[in-house]
Write a structure and sequence with these properties.
Two copies of one chain form a homodimer. Chain A is of the alpha/beta class. Helix content of chain A is 39%, strand content 20%. At the A-B interface, α7 of A face α7 of B.
Chain lengths: 325, 325
């Protein structure tokens, strides 16, 4: 098969700390890849230059001339202006109105397509991962915050202002804990990594014995997912309730999504969930199924994401292909 | 214009207490209509015969021969099996696996198309009512319970088991009041007409002065929408907080829908809302906008339904047309 027919594209996953670019073929194989630090604090022009370098290095690693690449897809933190290809604003990157598509196109001389990171991650899982074969899919990504995405009839739902899929801010209790968004009781305020850590620190500060923090929760450093898994398996008295609470509230949000969309698959990704796997997802599923109509969960799969770190670059490739044909 | 070109269809709104059938033209004009009691307690064959009589009477009222009618659309309580045209089960009608499409087709000798009442009501508002001109629309119908529907890109979202749109059972507080569905803290348990009445009776039983019930909440009869409006306008101490609470929780649910779908229009229908109009909807809108991302509500209309009792028959006509072309 000729290189053109293989429809080679580059998917770029732009994160708050790192850029990950990969050359991807139609089967979802990664032919070459490269990672660099984002260095957002040096300004948008520095980061976009690093993204371009990363893309060219990925092609070189794959042993491909630049001409073999047909297009570039990018998953970026949002909110985005999809029509203009701008990053409107994002707390992680501290830029405003950054012309991502235009500048990257200028540097790479290829068509560039941009969507938000959670939508792109969901596209990856939909096409190559845990939601493969389904037409109606909901995705939750549990990280520092919680993002999400929705695919209906094989198409991402973008909405009127292109801002659909903010599943982390479904309100699960109007009188619940404060959320970073300014409201109270959002899913993110119950189930995100930050919420889990806050619960652990609170329990330790209240005297609960735990192996996770050395000095009673005084350290502000994030607790690694692997550490959380170990502590969970060791039945740590501070960690187990915090993780379970996260999984349970995600279950209530999943129940809402089942009643609203009646999707075929609900994919749950993000570091904590991926590290804990079914220890986490089984609990979410149990609460979800109990809290929606029986018909809304019948034969519905509620499952951990399967592509891990690659969901972003693979989904960005799918985004690029969707515009090529 | 010939009758065939006018694409005349009959929309039927099947309710728990009444059947309403109307002949409708492409402009959404009702050319003739008929209403009958449902008499569900006499069994499905009796009701389906009454539906057929109602449809034929509507055509006669319009002065049209039966041949002028191209198809029949029906909005029915659910859940439904759309592929088979069955009413699977519904508390209001007490039938199981009722073959609505097949039997009605046999009686009327026309193509028959069925969808659930809230989806059909939303189709009506989308095509001829408050959501006219929008592509992405969410609808809430506040009645004895709360139903809903979602249109994305001009198409109703049905989901994997054809049971999407159960917006009344979004959980707004996992520890909230018991809901008829068996769970706790669903929207319906806060905002439905039953929830409003329960709050009013509770307040009266606790000694709150109110003009609504004669004997301190002992009467089990439903409180009419018109009576609620009068009491609200008179600043009734039991009615005002109950209505406001309903509107506020609907606001939280609306915020979730804005963050999830970012629709262009949110339509709110049902007797209580229609009677109170902006007194209710303004409060819902205020809470919704405050509790979602700014971009998710920007230029989004949150508005009362405009077709009142006709949304069902008009939407059923739209359903029929959608299958004719």
């Amino acid at each position: 098969m000729g290189k053109e027919k293989r429809d080679l594209v580059i998917g770029i996953d732009l994160g708050g700390t790192k850029i990950y670019a990969a050359v991807i073929d139609r089967k979802g194989s990664i032919l070459g890849s490269e990672r660099k630090k984002t260095k957002a604090e040096l300004g948008f022009p520095v980061t976009v230059t690093r993204m371009a370098e990363c893309a060219r290095a990925a092609a070189a690693t794959a042993g491909l001339p630049w001409e073999a690449i047909r297009a570039i897809g990018v998953g970026s933190p949002g909110p985005l202006d999809l029509k203009k290809g701008l990053i409107i604003e994002t707390p992680n990157l501290a830029w405003k109105e950054a012309p991502l598509r235009k500048e990257l196109k200028k540097l790479l001389k290829k068509p560039v397509y941009v969507d938000n990171d959670c939508n792109v991650g969901l596209l990856g899982e939909y096409t190559f991962g845990a939601a493969r074969g389904a037409r109606d899919v909901v995705g939750f990504f549990v990280g520092t915050g919680i993002g999400g995405g929705v695919i209906i009839g094989g198409r991402l739902v973008h909405g009127f202002n292109e801002n659909a899929g903010e599943l982390g801010h479904i309100i699960l209790d109007p009188h619940g804990p404060a959320c970073g968004c300014g409201n109270q009781g959002c899913l993110e305020a119950f189930s995100s990594r930050l919420a889990i850590e806050r619960e652990i620190r609170r329990a330790i500060a209240a005297g609960t014995p735990s192996a996770v923090l050395d000095d009673a929760g005084a350290s502000a450093a994030p607790i690694r997912s692997r550490r959380l898994l170990e502590a969970y398996l060791a039945n740590d008295a501070a960690v187990v309730p915090a993780i379970n609470r996260s999984a349970e509230y995600l279950g209530y949000a999943t129940a809402a999504m089942l009643n609203i969309f009646n999707p075929e698959v609900v994919v749950i990704g993000g570091g904590v969930v991926e590290a804990l796997g079914d220890l986490y997802v089984n609990r979410t599923r149990e609460i979800a199924v109990k809290n929606c109509f029986a018909i809304a969960s019948r034969n519905v799969r509620i499952t951990a994401a399967s592509l891990k770190d690659d969901s972003g670059v693979l989904g960005a490739a799918v985004l690029a292909w969707s515009h090529l044909h």
